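Ops channel
N.P.: pipeline sanity check, posting one input/output pair.
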């Protein structure tokens, strides 16, 4: 059982000094720039074609008219003045947006940010280009609910940054439009309309039809594309790399034959699913809920593999009235065949139940959008959308005309609340991000539960070193491959600096929640610091640490000689990482962006986030550190890691001591100290928790009665006691105690001969 430990005065003093320094320097935070300040970085023509000058700012928050000659082309505003735009760095991302009087965004420019992934690693132009879907988009329709918000293109490695940028531009534009300050209130007025005929599904029609009949009358809609047609479309769209990577060498080969039909319509459902299949569907559907059947054949899969990793079918989207929804694995049922007579054999058949949270009317026109993706590089993809429109044939509907409602006075834009959300669900961006990463969040929680079980049952596991060795190696592979290379959940000293900066300049939970796995891991690290210190993260959850240990294990297997530094030199190299961290911390109080630049001493971004797909100096630096780790296990962790130093400081306040020691440890026994993989055990026997990675090798020795001298003595005494207390068998003498010297028994002829020799 762990026991409470006394908090070292030295560790407490260091931590209190850290807090005092933090809040003493808090006053050095700089105020954010204003719209007028940022307009100095923008040319009018960057926001509106042929615009030549800016006017004077008006209103609060300020907007600035942009002139084309003597005419007002539109207005410029700062996104962060109207909505939260806090990015991954914990600082606002400032974008100057140009919007005309009709509510159409005509241009934008990123003028200031502190995003580390953009500052170093991913070109800023690539991130800004992801916002192109917002340009020339009529956001007045989004403000009135006629269209859904435009979706930005995701940039791998900068997902949070791009989502925040796109979300802040759209939200700020909608808020400005609803305020009525653009000078054109037509888009915000609510006009009284005459009652329109209402379509209702005619459930009385139950006739079963064959495949060709359903195709002929429009009950089933089809989209047929060849490989050559798709390649030509990519070429015309200015994406030649995608055009040169076809799915098949013959351009006449079918790319996809896509079919879609609403099977919640009784006659269509009976025909395509059969009586039994349609009956199961009806039992599953709630009143008013709909379902569609999607089937395809050819070289391209409409399902893709995204739903396997993240639970979302990212290649198809259902669209209606400007709103859209992507199906999830819980909405999906795989079918093996279509019941209609004459139906072809199709490679993929899927039944999708439309969630009742999505306002879908099967009697109104809708579209299924197919997103065609082609890989153009190691991390790049080109996309091309194709829309398959569907209108339910008149034979399946009945039309009713309701009575006219009383006419209400029209509302003006000025009377509409400016803070009304533009999306129907009215959820913050971070909630959507968590929903998108639901599967990854579940896997991460499961991994943390497994690690917690390992720690709580460590005494049982270390008594079985072979089993424990396989468990540890397996967990390191999980940390490297899944947490690191797949999920990009590599914690960094940048996170620490950002958190400190947020405490100084204004703390917002939205920012920290926008990266679900990073948030979960930091919560786990915080809990781990109270129980075990820095070891759980550094020794188990750090992907780069796992990469070092696994590569060193391969080196040992290949008989690569291991270097053990003299204790005096090793101990004097420990402070290097603390000096690096304190330097970065002090630099962050002056300029967080500058500190993030120097934080490149961490090879995490190169080796884990970008998977070595980076400029050669960064790759050489990361490979050099890994090469050093082949000879000195976890070389970077021992001497250079500023994140390890940052965690070691509060780690001194841990509440329990879980690593057990014998009185003989260090005097005279030195076995644990000599075998510790990172030399975190002093020659005197105590474990330096600031350096311990909690690999538990010392605990294996602690329990081993063939390697630990203390346990060897315990075993020998036990064996001697058993031997002396066990009655001898008949005809046999009691075993005699034999005293040896230098491996030879004393007092026997063999021993005498050995001494004479």
């Amino acid at each position: 059982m762990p026991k409470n430990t006394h908090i070292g005065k030295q560790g407490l003093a260091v931590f209190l000094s850290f807090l005092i320094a933090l809040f003493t320097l808090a006053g050095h935070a700089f105020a954010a720039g204003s719209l007028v300040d940022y307009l100095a970085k923008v040319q009018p023509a960057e926001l509106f074609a042929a615009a030549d000058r800016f006017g004077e700012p008006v209103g609060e928050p300020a907007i600035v008219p942009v002139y084309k000659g003597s005419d007002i082309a539109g207005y410029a505003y700062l996104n962060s003045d109207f909505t939260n735009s806090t990015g991954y760095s914990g600082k606002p991302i400032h974008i100057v947006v140009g919007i005309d009087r009709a509510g159409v965004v005509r241009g934008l420019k990123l003028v200031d940010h502190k995003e580390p992934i953009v500052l170093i690693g991913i070109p800023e132009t690539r991130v800004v280009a992801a916002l192109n879907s917002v340009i020339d988009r009529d956001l007045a329709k989004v403000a009135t609910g006629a269209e859904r918000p435009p979706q930005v293109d995701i940039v791998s490695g900068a997902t949070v940054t791009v989502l925040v940028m796109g979300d802040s531009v759209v939200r700020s534009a909608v808020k400005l439009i609803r305020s009525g300050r653009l000078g054109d209130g037509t888009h915000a007025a609510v006009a009284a309309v005459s009652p329109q005929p209402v379509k209702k599904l005619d459930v009385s029609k139950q006739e079963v039809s064959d495949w060709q009949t359903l195709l002929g009358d429009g009950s089933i809609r089809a989209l047929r594309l060849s490989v050559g047609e798709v390649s030509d479309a990519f070429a015309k769209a200015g994406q030649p790399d995608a055009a040169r990577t076809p799915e098949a060498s013959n351009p006449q080969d079918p790319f996809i034959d896509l079919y879609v039909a609403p099977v919640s319509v009784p006659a269509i459902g009976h025909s395509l699913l059969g009586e039994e299949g349609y009956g199961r569907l009806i039992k599953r559907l709630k009143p008013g809920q709909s379902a569609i059947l999607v089937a395809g054949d050819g070289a391209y899969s409409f399902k893709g593999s995204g739903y396997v990793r993240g639970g979302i079918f990212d290649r198809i989207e259902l669209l209606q009235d400007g709103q859209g929804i992507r199906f999830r694995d819980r909405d999906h049922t795989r079918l093996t065949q279509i019941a209609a007579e004459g139906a072809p054999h199709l490679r993929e058949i899927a039944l999708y139940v439309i969630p009742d949270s999505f306002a879908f009317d099967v009697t109104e026109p809708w579209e299924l959008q197919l997103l065609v993706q082609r890989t153009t590089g190691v991390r790049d993809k080109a996309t091309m959308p194709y829309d398959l429109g569907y209108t339910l044939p008149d034979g399946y509907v009945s039309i009713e005309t309701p009575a006219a409602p009383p006419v209400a006075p029209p509302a003006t834009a000025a009377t509409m609340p400016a803070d009304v959300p533009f999306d129907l669900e009215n959820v913050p961006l971070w909630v959507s991000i968590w929903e998108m990463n639901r599967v990854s969040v579940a896997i991460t929680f499961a991994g943390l539960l497994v690690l917690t079980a390992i720690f709580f049952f460590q005494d049982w596991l270390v008594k079985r070193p072979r089993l424990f060795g396989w468990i540890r190696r397996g967990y390191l592979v999980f940390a490297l491959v899944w947490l690191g290379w797949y999920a990009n959940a590599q914690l960094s000293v940048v996170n620490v600096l950002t958190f400190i900066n947020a405490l100084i300049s204004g703390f917002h939970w939205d920012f920290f929640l926008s990266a679900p796995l990073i948030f979960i891991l930091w919560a786990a690290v915080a809990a781990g610091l109270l129980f075990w210190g820095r070891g759980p993260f550094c020794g188990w959850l750090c992907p780069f640490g796992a990469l070092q240990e696994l590569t060193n294990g391969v080196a040992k297997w290949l008989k690569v000689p291991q270097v053990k530094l003299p204790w005096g030199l090793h101990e004097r190299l420990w402070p290097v990482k603390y000096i690096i961290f304190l330097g970065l911390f002090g630099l962050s109080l002056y300029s967080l962006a500058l500190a993030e630049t120097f934080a490149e001493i961490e090879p995490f971004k190169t080796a884990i986030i970008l998977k070595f797909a980076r400029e050669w100096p960064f790759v050489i630096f990361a490979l050099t550190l890994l090469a050093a780790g082949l000879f000195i296990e976890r070389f970077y962790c021992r001497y250079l890691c500023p994140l390890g130093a940052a965690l070691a400081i509060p780690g001194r306040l841990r509440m329990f001591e879980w690593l057990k020691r014998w009185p003989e440890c260090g005097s005279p026994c030195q076995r644990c100290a000599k075998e510790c993989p990172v030399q975190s055990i002093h020659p005197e026997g105590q474990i330096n928790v600031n350096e311990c990675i909690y690999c538990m090798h010392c605990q294996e020795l602690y329990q081993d009665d063939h390697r630990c001298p203390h346990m060897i003595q315990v075993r020998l005494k036990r064996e001697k006691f058993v031997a002396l207390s066990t009655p001898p068998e008949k005809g046999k003498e009691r075993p005699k105690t034999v005293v040896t010297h230098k491996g030879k028994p004393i007092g026997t002829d063999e021993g005498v001969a050995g001494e004479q020799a």
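N.P.: looks fine end to end. The CA atoms of residues 295 and 349 lie 4 Å apart.
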